[in-house]
Amino acid sequence: MRASAIQPLDLVAVVGRVALSLVEALGRFGTFFARAVGYTVTPPFKTRQLWGRIHFIGYNSLIIIVLTGAFTGMVLGLQVFITLSRFGSEAFLGPAVALSLIRELGPVLAALMVTGRAGSALTAEIGIMRISEQIDALTVMALNPLRYLVVPSIVAGIITFPLMTAIFDTVGIFGGYLVGVRLLGLSQGTYFGEMKTFVDMQDIMTGVWKSLSFGVLVTWVCTYKGYYVGHGAEGVARATTQAVVLCSVLILVWDYFMGSVLP
Amino acid sequence: MIRVENLRKSFAGQPVLKGVNLDVARGEIMIVIGQSGGGKTVLLKHLLGLLRADAGRIVVDGVDITDLRGGALDAVRSRYGVVFQGGALFDSMSVFDNIAFPLRERTSLPGGEIAERVHAKLEQVGLAGMGGKNPAEISGGMRKRVAIARALVTEPEIVFFDEPTTGLDPVLVNTIHGLIVDLHAKFNFTAVMVSHEIPEIFRIARRVAMLYDGRIVETGPPDAIQTSPNPVIQQFIRGDPEGPIHLR
Fold first, then answer.
1. Is residue A168 a contact partner of residue A106, using CB atoms and an 8 Å limit?
2. Residue A119, domain extent
3. ipTM summary value
């Protein structure tokens, strides 16, 4: 047998190494979050940094949220109207658009949009701070980088994601109104009246819980990826890509899980 | 003031520090010289508590910081000032805010006094009136001086300099070195600097330590180091490609 041939024990060693590194990464990911949660509930609270993050994640994402919300609502209005008209049920356009947005599309699409705009920037910013020793500078000033960079981002995510989702939903419902009522001739009373009949608080809370959890998930993943970035510009680029991809996948997986658990 | 005993550190099985021993006296300027990639910054990061040693001990003013964590380590760090290789200035803040940052975060000084101290430091480093600029708008030499001002604004007892003149022209190198000497004379801090600016560092160091092959091979006043019979030191000082030092 040639010396270079792969031995069964080598394969076991490789699998073992992969498993160990996976467990280590998951442990680090979890510990990172646990420490951030610990600093969230203990003073000193960095309110100035928090306002900055709310502006960065929320306010700066407003245009993209309004734009995507409007067109999502308009597309829904058009497609659902066409579908419902086949069954003579156009009257249910309002609740169909509202329920789709409030329960599902609003939280998911708003989270995906904020991930693309603010999440990637968050990873890149913290990553650059890491490779340019700014995080080390904070540490040796006896100031905790997690408290300065990560906690404000996660709290800002918890505050802004539900607000962004509410704006997305509202604009989307009016987008559906524009197409269904203004363009396709459905009566305004039917559109909004049926909506009031079919949409209840439970639907709204489903959307709120989803957006809250997405706010935590996106900021957690994005700050983690930036905090433990690799070396140089390539490391930052890789971390940013990984953060966006991981967030997008986790949003969809978590959405399914929440959808199946929440009423 | 600082004692390093038999410090060892490996990365992925590759030993970088193989038993470093070093003593830094209170109030002196100790400069650690050595090859690029030879472990000088790694040694410095251990002194700062940014890396954990595999073995050995680091004692700062009687406190063993080797395994110190959390608040206890922060208490030691609050006596430090650090000038990082690239300055490590916060991009999102102006020069003024960068220097004011440690005062705002670590002290309860009123805004007026903080502003006074920041302006005084800017003047000491020759950057009066530059407080409103962003780090991206100023030159490399200015950034180093801002980093020095930020490191000294809290009046630390120990200041660490990680290659503070790398990438600067000879005039700027001597300007920065002159600035460090002036500030040291004025504030009498203990300085630990890693550098390979030969021969400029011999003009400012009180003592020089040569790090080679993961160990301190010689420590002494600049004159003693320059006349040392150790072939490693002689080759390094002369910048001779031939000799016992292997390229990394």
1. yes
2. 52-261
3. 0.91
